[in-house]
TrEMBL record:
Keywords: Membrane, Transmembrane, Transmembrane helix. The keyword Lipoprotein does not apply. The chain holds residues 424 to 700 of 704 of the full protein. This is GGDEF domain-containing protein. Residues 23-276 form the EAL domain. The keyword Transmembrane helix applies.
Length: 277
């Protein structure tokens, strides 16, 4: 087995033979998608404990004319390996800001925030903070309406610099969420070191909530959050029992198919008008 760039193992070299050919085709198609603006941003509601929508997570979609809907789990890693993630990330940010602007006029009663996923590669760019700041400034969106979701991957580069950037972003008024908490190698040390506002408890814990060990872990994560003044969000809430259980443990917000999947912009607006006119 060979170790590939980002620490994943492949049974054979991904750059040889059939797999390599498919990968090159996908890469080519992804470049075209970027040029032709084939991507869409969809929005999944974030709920509070009164079942009110307090925001949405922006999730990228690639409806490819040739391949059908390509899942982000399939093309984001490729975009990261090829550097296309920078252009995609810029597109996502601009799209998100445009959407927030439209919500201000189309959904005046909705003052929720929009949270976007930021790849560690984007975050590592030296000009990340300044270019983000100027984009937000131009759009005239209050900084607190935007939240950035980062993963433990941001710590793979310079640790001090990462923390410094996070502090700068928070000073600007942006919210920072630590995504997928509990997966990978994430540890309590991240909570100690990283200045964050929100902790997203990974879906895998929520789906196992009926089991004793995951339940205790989720309970512990929520109470750590409370003590550290960090809001907790449960991802992948699919059932009423999961929801009421999480509420009773003091979880702050909730996201999952129980409330809604990610919706395209039009469907999201309709959903908001229906649920909180
Ligand atoms: P994520 O950030 O952890 O996003 C949550 C994923 O869980 C989304 O998958 C969402 O559709 C799915 N999900 C939400 N509720 C439920 C539920 O109740 N049950 C189940 N089974 N799944 C649920 P999606 O949209 O396929 O995104 C997959 C991953 O791709 C994301 O995971 C994120 O890591 C990445 N991604 C998506 N959009 C972007 C983007 O704009 N930029 C970057 N860098 N990464 C993105
Ligand atoms: Ca996320
Ligand atoms: Ca997540
Ligand atoms: Ca994930």
């Amino acid at each position: 087995a060979k170790k590939s760039g980002r620490g994943r193992f492949h049974l054979y070299d991904p750059r040889s033979g059939e797999e390599s050919r498919l990968r090159q085709q996908l890469e080519q198609a992804l470049r075209q998608a970027l040029l032709n603006e084939q991507f869409e941003l969809h929005y999944q509601p974030l709920m509070d404990s009164n079942r009110r929508c307090i925001g949405a997570e922006a999730l990228i979609r690639w409806p490819s004319p040739e391949r059908g809907m390509v899942a982000p789990d399939r093309f984001i890693p490729l975009a990261e390996e090829t550097g296309m993630i920078h252009a995609i990330g810029d597109w996502v940010l601009q799209q998100a800001l445009n959407r927030l602007q439209r919500w201000q006029t189309e959904l005046p009663g909705f003052d929720g925030y929009l949270t976007i996923n930021v790849s560690p590669w984007q975050f590592a760019r030296p000009d990340f903070v300044t270019s983000l700041h100027s984009a937000i400034h131009k759009s005239n969106i209050p900084h607190h309406r935007l939240c950035l979701e980062i993963t433990e991957g941001v710590l793979l580069t310079d640790r001090e610099e990462t923390i410094d950037k996070l502090n700068q972003l928070r000073k600007l008024g942006l919210m920072i969420a630590l995504d997928d908490f509990g997966t990978g190698y994430s540890s309590l040390a991240y909570l100690r070191d990283l200045p964050i506002d929100v902790l997203k408890i990974d879906r895998s814990f929520i789906s196992d909530l009926q089991l004793e060990a995951p339940r205790h872990l989720v309970d512990a994560i929520i109470s750590i959050g409370r003590h550290m003044n960090i809001k907790t969000v449960a991802e992948g809430v699919e059932t009423e029992p999961q929801w009421s259980h999480l509420k009773s443990m003091g979880c702050d917000s909730f996201q999952g198919y129980l409330f809604s999947p990610a919706l395209n912009a039009e469907a999201f607006s309709r959903w908001i008008r229906q649920h909180q006119p």
